[in-house]
Amino acid sequence: MKPSLLWFRQDLRLQDNPALLAAVARGAAVIPVYILDDAGEGRWVAGGAARWWLHHSLGALDAALRERGSRLIVARGDASEVLRELVRSTGAGALFWNRRYEPAVMARDAKLKAEFAAAGLEVKSSNAALLHEPHTIANKQGKPFQVFTPFWRHCLTLPTSPPVKSGAVALPAPDRWPRSLALGDLGLLPTRRWDAGFAAQWEPGEAGAARRLKTFVAGAMADYADTRNLPDRDGTSMLSPWLHTGELSPRQVWAAVENASRSSGVFPPNNGARVFLSEVGWREFAHHLLYHFPYTPERPLREEFGRFPWADDPGGVKLRAWQRGQTGYPMVDAGMRQLWQVGWMHNRVRMVAGSFLVKHLRLPWTHGAAWFWDTLVDADLASNTLGWQWTAGCGADAAPYFRIFAPVLQGVKFDGNGDYVRRWVPELARLPAEHIHAPWEAPPDVLAAAGVRLGETYPRPIVDHTRARNAALAALKELRALPADNA
């Protein structure tokens, strides 16, 4: 038989890979291929941190394939042209891939499927990324959900498919392998080595995903409902980068939680697991919204927010202070520095830092989304869009858009001892806990003893919280008259 092309994209794993299983089931040689097609991503070419992860993930996938007598063919350029050339040079008779749901990619994939099917190839795409695909979910009126709770309640009534057993399947090799670029030829790693802290934090690849999932389910998951908001603890799953690149599937996550329930006979086995699975549901909700409202990465879901009076920022001074963790608010700065150093930020701090940008500084949420897109190893178009629109109050769900996170209060509440701030803002490390979240209020002798010189070793606040909050509320009331609230 003519060989089959297995096109890897955001599914860089062998376990629970339905496209791989379909390719092997066809009975011919299988040629795995990855194509770096930046133009095919539309406006959302992967950012620097995500490209670092991708480089190491592809290396891990190639190594896993070689253990099974196969290998990964690496190419760069227009995916349509690369696939046409591969069909020509290998004589392939079939093409298999797992679906993605970003607007530009979906449009490209539809054209590709039609083209290759018309040319006589067997073409099949599968779902490997979601528990429930967006086109299968609708409310009672047959329309997309725009509020998370009823969306997830509906999803919980649906059967969840178990992971498909594909990891141990042998991939028959072709008589002759097509040409491949070396992984380094893709140019995914930074030329300036800003990624020094990444390797110590992360283990890209399917094996790293499996280890992290096992560790989380056996440990922090039980207390997840209580510890997920404490940024100084290892209390969250941190699975998002592996889920984004598809080194781990949500079906595998679901199955791991189910397996953990066997001893108790209850699913989910505890409240921590229930809350954790709702976060998996939040990821599903993000893809549901992006599929049905494909304009949302650039425009607010709630149209009235297109008229929001954003503040001026001459020269981008305030934006740069936020990006560099130099706002003078320790909780915000700690999060932004954690993001830069390891490519990830604790979720509670993401909300605080995001709220500070759009509410305190009144800078467009798209500025924050763009910065996160470039600096997060887990940068995912659906999740990034939903998170920023939720923070700005211009998107889906019933989150009160008038909520303004007070960074000092959030620090005191969720980092009471200041350990998170001390780790990421070391110039404040010697401040006592009662002053670490508001160093400008500390007595001069306390600052001196800690070696802190405001305006020199650490900046003074770039905005006053009360004034900034009042200005944001005034701007929001121009759009809709709603009562004020403070988180």
What is the element layout, followed by pairings?
Blueprint: E1 4-8, H1 18-25, E2 30-36, H2 48-67, E3 73-76, H3 79-90, E4 94-98, H4 103-118, E5 122-126, H5 148-155, H6 198-201, H7 206-218, H8 224-227, H9 240-245, H10 250-260, H11 271-292, H12 317-323, H13 330-342, H14 347-360, H15 365-375, H16 381-392, E6 403-404, H17 407-414, H18 419-424, H19 433-436, H20 444-450, H21 465-479, E7 485-486
Word description of this protein:
The chain is about 45% helix and about 5% strand. By secondary structure, it is α/β, with parallel strands linked by helices. Helix 1 (about 20-25) links the parallel strand 1 and strand 2 (about 30-35). Mean pLDDT is about 95; it is low at about 480-485.
Structure summarized in a few sentences:
The chain is of the alpha/beta class and 487 residues long. The protein has helices at residues 18-25, 48-67, 79-90, 103-118, 148-155, 198-201, 206-218, 224-227, 240-245, 250-260, 271-292, 317-323, 330-342, 347-360, 365-375, 381-392, 407-414, 419-424, 433-436, 444-450, 465-479; strands spanning 4-8, 30-36, 73-76, 94-98, 122-126, 403-404, 485-486. The protein folds into 3 domains: 4-127, Rossmann fold; 130-162 and 206-292, Serine Threonine Protein Phosphatase 5, Tetratricopeptide repeat, CATH 1.25.40.80; 303-486, DNA Cyclobutane Dipyrimidine Photolyase, subunit A, domain 3.
List keywords for this structure.
487 residues, alpha/beta, Serine Threonine Protein Phosphatase 5, Tetratricopeptide repeat, 3 domains, 45% helix, disordered C terminus
